[in-house]
Amino acid sequence: MKDHLKLTSKQEKTLKRLEEVLKQQNVRLTKGRLEILKIIIVKEHPTLNDIIAVLEETGHKVNVMSVYNTLDMLLDKHIIYANIFNGKQICYEPRVQESYHLKCDSCQEVHHIDHLGQFGEFFKSLTKSSEVVGWNCDHFKIEIHGTCPKCHEDLLKKNH
Q: Where does Zn(2+) bind (predicted)?
């Protein structure tokens, strides 16, 4: 089996952190489960079909029901999130404390942003707001709609 999924150091840390969470929940870490989790970490917003394609490309024998069951288990254990963009296909991503997506309403491109940067204070205020009403904020996701730089530039050219 060839393994062309190379993890960055940040992705490696995410994988290790999620493996630890699974171990704490007494989940068996089979090669198949770890490979699916690795694909979700490396590929941006993979669909079920994307995950199956990568497994096949890397020489894994694919049992579609096992992939479904693994995704269900990872969702149930809060290891991954499922997102629906454009009201169509379900995409998966690893759980991070805070994340947001920038979605271009023109070309439908979705960009995942997982670094806090200047939004750190904003995320802290969201967490504080939930605590004020008695909630314990575990995580949140934000989807921001607009126009990407390329589509915005194309629109400006078209209007001039």
A: 104, 107, 148, 151
CA distance 130 to 83: 22
Is 148 labeled as ligand-binding? yes
Q: How many domains does the chain have?
A: 2
Domain boundary among 47, 64, 95: 95
pLDDT, tens only, 12-22:
998 999 999 99
Query: Is 151 annotated to bind ligand?
Result: yes
Max Cα distance, the chain (Å): 61
The whole domain housing 82 covers: 1-95
Q: Are residues 76 and 153 in the same domain?
A: no
pLDDT in tens, 30-39: 999 999 999 9
Q: Is 91 annotated as a binding residue?
A: no
pTM for the full model? 0.70
Positive or negative: CA dihedral 18, 19, 20, 25:
positive
DSSP H helical ranges for the chain: 9-24, 31-42, 48-57, 64-76, 120-132, 149-159
DSSP state of 78: T
Q: What backbone torsions phi and psi does residue 72 show, to the nearest 5 degrees?
A: -60, -45
